[in-house]
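Subject: Interface between my chains keeps coming out wrong

I've been trying for a while to get a sensible model of this assembly. When I model each chain on its own everything looks fine, but I need the whole thing in one frame so I can look at the contacts. Pasting all components below, labels as-is. Any help appreciated, I'm running out of ideas.
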Amino acid sequence: MTDLLARRDLSTGPEPPEAALTTGSTGSRILGVCALVSLAILVLLAFVVTGQDVNLGESIRIMYVHVPTVSLAYLCMILNAVGAVWYLWKRSEFADLLSHAAGELGVVLLGITLISGSLWGRITWGAYWVWDARLTTTALLFLMYVGYLAVRAATPEPRSRAVRSAVVGIAAACLIPIVHESVQWWASLHQSETLFGTLSPKIKGTQLFTLMFSFVAFGFTTAWLLMHRFRVAWLAERAAESELEVAIAERRAEATEPAEVVS
Amino acid sequence: MMADARAVAGDALLIAGKDLRLEARTRVATNHVLPFVGAVVMIFAFALDPDTGVLRRATAGLFWVTVLFAAVLLIQRSFAVEQADGVSDSLRLSGLRPAGIFLGKVLSLIAELVGIEIVLIGAVIVLYGVHLKGALLLLVTTLAATVAIAAVGSVYGPLATGLRASETALPLLLLPVLAPVLLAATRAFEIALGDTAGGGWPWAGMLGIVAAVYLTLGLAVWGPLLEET
Amino acid sequence: MIALLAAIKVTSQWPFILGAWGVTVLIIGGYAFSVVRRGKRLSRQVPPEQRRWM
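Reply #2:
Try treating it as a single job with all components included. I did that and got this:
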C-alpha cells in the first residue's frame, strides 16, 4: 500500500532520464525530421519551383494542401474503422486507442480540407461555400467524426467507451460510400457540370511531381502525429488507472486500521 | 437456421409488442410528439411566407425535416425507457437474442414513425396545399426511408443513452448520418408531389439500399452493444 | 459556364493562397504542440515501467 502511495510522487524515486519524459522515441524523431524536411521542400516546390496552372491559375497552390489532406483524412477514417473492428473482435486496448488517434487526426485533416477548399472556392467561384459534391460530403463526414469524438468524450468508463465509439466508427465508415454517392447525385442535379473541376487530368511535369510529393510530406506529418497522439492516449489510460488505484488505496486506508496490511 | 430465424422473429415481436403497449399506455408519441410535429409545420409556415409559394415548393424538404425531428424524439424515448428501472439489465439477462431485440426496436419505431407520417401527410396536404401525383412512389419512399431511419436510430439510440449529456449527443450523431436519407426522400417526394419532373424510383431504390445497409449494421453490432450499454 | 466563372474577378489570389497555407500550418503546428505538451505532462504522471506502449 505504501508502494502505491509512493509511486504517485515520482520525485521520491531515482530521477528518470529527461529523454523518457516525452512521447518521443528514436523512431518518431526520425519521422519528425522527415516530416519537417519534406514540408519545407514542399513549400519550396509549391511557391517557388512550380508556376501557375493553365486552368486554375495560382490557386493550384492551394491544391497542394487540399488534395493530400482529404486523402489522408480518408486513410485515417479507414484506420479508425479497422481499429474499431479489431477492437470489437479482440478487445485489444491498442486497437481502441489507435482508433481514437486516427479518428481525431481525421477530424483535424478534414477541417483543413474544408478551410482550404473554401478558400480555393473563393478564388475560383467567388464564394466561400458552394454546395458541390466534394465539399458537402467532406462537411458531412467532418460532422460524423466530430460525433465520434463526442461519444468518446462523454463516456467515462473505458470499456463502454471503447465499444460505443467502435460502433460509431464502424457505422460512420460504412456510410462514407453512401454519403458520397447520394451527395454526388444530389449535387449533379443543380450543377450543369462538376464545378469542383478536379485538377485537369493533363496535369504534368513539376505540378504533378509537387502534388505527389505533397502526399509524401503530409503523409510523414500524419504518421508522426498519429504516433504521438496514440502514445498520449496510452499514457492517459495508464495515468487514469494509477489514479484509480491510488484512490482505492486511500479509501481502504481510511476504512482499516493502520496496522492492517492491504494486499 | 430456420428455427434460429423464427426465434429471432419471435423475440422481435415480443420487444415490439412491449414497446407499443407501453406507448399505448403512456401516449408519449400521441401527446408529445404529434403536437410537436404540428407546431413545426406551423413554424415553417411562419418562417417561409405561404403567399410567395416558397412553402408550397419546399414542402417535400420540410416534410422530411419534420420527420427527422420527430424521429430524434421518438428514438430518444424508445431507448430512455430501457434505461429506467434496470430494464437494460433485465434485457441482457433475459436470454433474448440481440438481433431480435434490435429488430423489435426497429419495428416499434417504424410503427410510431408511420403513424406520425400519416398525420403529417394529411397536415401538409391541407395546410401547404400540395397535390399528390405519384401516390405509389410516395408510399414506397416513405416506407423505405422510415425503415432506414428506424434502423439507424436503433443503432445510435443505445449508444447515446447513458452518456453524459445524452440528449444533446443523439441529434449530433443522428442528423449527419441521416442526411443521405433526407436527400433521397426529399428528391423522391418532390417528384411524387409534381414539383419536379424526372424519375423518382432511383431515389426510392437508393433508400432501399440505405435501409438494407443500416439493418445489416445493426444486426452485426447489437450483440456487443447490448453487453456494454 | 466556365467563361462566366472566369469573369468573376478576384483582385489578387495571393491572400487566399497564403491564408490557406497559413491556416494549415497553424492547425497542424498547434495540434502537434498540444499533443507533445500533453505527452510530456502525462509522462511525468505515469511511472517509468508503464510508459512502454504496446
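Reply #3:
Confirming on my end. Chains B and C do not touch (no CB pair under 8 Å).
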